[in-house]
Amino acid sequence: MQPVEEAAGFNWSGAYVGIGGGFGASVHKFSVPGLDFNGLGGNGVFGELTAGYDYMVSERFLLGGFIDANLSNIGPSLSIAGGDVDLTNSYGFDVGLRAGYLLNPNTLGYVLGGYTWQHFKLDGSGAADGLEFSQNRSGYVLGVGMETVLRGNWTLKTEYRYADYGDKSVLDLGDASLDIEPSTHTFHIAANYRFGAQNGGGTSFAAPTYDWTGFYAGGALGAGTMVHDLNLNLGLGASGELNGIGGEGVFGEASVGYDHDFGSWVAGVQLDARYSGIQTKLDLGPVSIKGDADYGFDALARIGAKVNESTLAYVLGGYSWQHFDLHAEAPGGGSADIYDWGSSGFSIGGGLETAVSSNMTVGLEYRYSQYQKEDFGSGGILEDTPSFQTVRLGAKYKFN
User: Fold this and answer.
1) How far is the C-alpha of 354 from the C-alpha of 48, rounded, in Å?
2) Domain Outer membrane protein beta-barrel: where (predicted)?
3) Considering the entire predicted model, what is its pTM?
4) Could you report how far apart the first and last alpha carbons of the chain are, in Å?
5) Domain ranges (residues) in the chain
6) 14-398 belongs to which CATH class?
7) By the number of CB atoms within 10 A of the CB, which of 82, 106, 217, 360 ranks highest?
């Protein structure tokens, strides 16, 4: 595959339509008086159609609006006593605004925000057949993304969105109620067709000259979810699976690595270390029980194709290690460890990275990580298989 020539004068103003999909996770926070649990979580995938309009207010700044419609199977599931229960984000839409800045003539970085609506559905099957519940929720969505020129009128978009659907009662308990607050973290990959992109009136500033070969150091900020897939086996046919216990949060990461430029594609290795605030939390009156995924590292390899003069689209994979800590906190600052462990696993993912100078790049990247099963010293009675979906926005400095 030969590198795609720079789309000189690409016009980012105008209407567009697109098709895509992605990966994501939901976290449902439950609360009744005296108890808050954040929460139940589950992974899944979605498909999406989008339409929008952008306007270049200057040579590098853009404002626009969009509307998306999605179909999804994201959500937790429970299997016990021959019955299966799934709670999914089944379909919905987002409508909002975005503001962007051209990092180079080929690639747009942007932030977005707006209104989101989602249909949530609870379905039972097997021994749980007939258990059904659905609810429509509205809320807000925030996100960040990168969009880069492929060829002709086509662009490639990668994007992270966080959506919150508010705290709402789902069950009247007399003097109290059961409230649920769903949130989602999603990573979007889409191809957009931009009408009139080759009709002139586009950008005229020069793209940076960048050689991908060399050592680099970088840093990133990110957000994501963890899902604990729990298996309970009491013997005599008594077993169950909950996929799963969810958590969410943000993290910081530092990285070093080396890339080699082979002409139309790039390959490299990297080592990352992170400190994370991704957490599951249960509040029982004044006592809090917290499950933290507090620190870890990855050793990864990646390979990518140059989609235009300045931008690399890549996939990655490799080894991951994560430390987990389950502890209780009481009023007055007292804390007691319940269980902590470290677990090996793997990560896979991909992203876009684009040059902003002869030595600097910025990128948006998605990773799915899964770790080994942990039995908590129970001899297989209770086992946990944790997984993560994370998105990071980072910058790298290449030394040579």
Assistant:
1) 25
2) 5-195, 206-399
3) 0.91
4) 26
5) 14-398
6) mainly beta
7) 106
